[in-house]
Amino acid sequence: MKPKLIIDDVIPFLDGRLESHFDCRYLPGEEIARADLRDAEGLLVRTRTRCDADLLEGTPVRMVATATIGHDHIDTAWCDAHGISWSNAPGCNAPAVAQYVYRALIELGLPFPTPETAEDQRPVIGVVGKGNIGSIVVDWGRRLGFRVIVSDPPRAARGLTDEEYLPLDTLMERADVVTFHTPLIRRPTEQLASTVHLCSTRQLELLRPGAYIVNAARGGVVDEEALIEARARKKLHIALDTWENEPSISPATLEVADLATFHIAGYSRQGKERATRAVLTALEEQFGVILPINDLAAPYTPPESLSEASIRASYDIVADDHMMRHEYPQFEHLRNSYPLREEVS
Q: Cα–Cα distance between 194 and 186 in angstroms, integer?
């Protein structure tokens, strides 16, 4: 008898890859319930399925794989304690998020440096979190001629020396642009502090007037009430792709965002293929099977050339903003039916 899998029905590029080895049942991610798992050994999800004791306890599930870079929807400690393996897809969408960040800054009117721009006149990009995504945002910023500064307390605590890691408050004071690329950590540990409302009233007070804020990490990283209060007083330029309480987002927050999108910063074709490849690889390791993956996108390699013009041409962010403003109550539908874009080539 084939092992049974329960699968979020909008994970792309799975057609025909699993059925020769598994009994597959596809369901909307937000509707997956414990009863669906009563005879399932594997669970393939995205962010809308909360994988914890309420869902998994008493089921035969022995592995959970998420086709996403984040894994805050998985209670990893509970899974570890109960012998359930779990995996995510780190870095799969990193180039697409970098594309989003710099395309948003173009649309918001940030002056991009030219070869003639004096060093002290080049805008300062402050990157909060230098993981898989933040590393590419840092690299692109420097290749585009910006001055780039970084805050990442966990990396600083580990003594890493690839950057001068600044305290968050120092970064907020010095940066013309602050872009967030941290996970949403609700339960702090000895190694990792909470990132809920990492950016709140005190941090926003430190910003220079006219600064740019981009949040393409998780909604809860930025305190939306504080952002609403600070926006006019600080003359902030704001781009938001992630929101508190998704998919039921706040119209008041939407109103203050200069650019607003529906959690699709990482939605490139290549990023989705990498995520699906990671899920399939996890299945291979867990069940000892061989699955067809070689036609899916390989790990990221930096584009040979990068410019304001190539980023602008690669992505119509204004169209996504228009859809969001007119159809935001259909947030999940917009997200699930999004036509995947191509990364900067």
A: 5
